[in-house]
Amino acid sequence: MADESLLVKILEEIKLMRNDISELKTDVSELKMDVSELKSGQQEDHQILKALEHKADVNKAEHDKMAMDISQIQGYQKNISESIDAIKEIIGRHEVDITVLKRRPV
C-alpha cells in the first residue's frame, strides 16, 4: 500500500512537472515572439537613423555650397563696388574738366 501511495505521488509530481514544462514552453514561445518584434522594431529604427544621417549629410553639403556661393557673391559685390568707385572718380574728373573748359574763352 505504501508503494502504491508513493507511486501515485510520483505520478502526480510527474504530471505537475509536465504542466510546468508546458507552461515554460508557452512562456519561451511568447518570449521568442517578443524578441522577434523587438528586433523588427530595432531594424526599423536603424533604417530611420541611417536615413536621418544621410539627410544630415545632404543638408551639410548644401549648407557648405551656400556658404561658398555667398563668399563668391561677396567677392563679386566688392569688385563691383570698387569699379563703381573708379567710375565715380573718372566722372568726377570729367566734370571738373568740363567746368574748366566751359570757363575758358573760345
From TrEMBL:
Keywords, sorted A to Z: Coiled coil
Protein name in UniProt: Uncharacterized protein
Superkingdom to which the source organism belongs: Bacteria
Biological source species: Lutispora saccharofermentans
Residue ranges that the Swiss-Prot or TrEMBL entry lists as coiled coil: 7-34
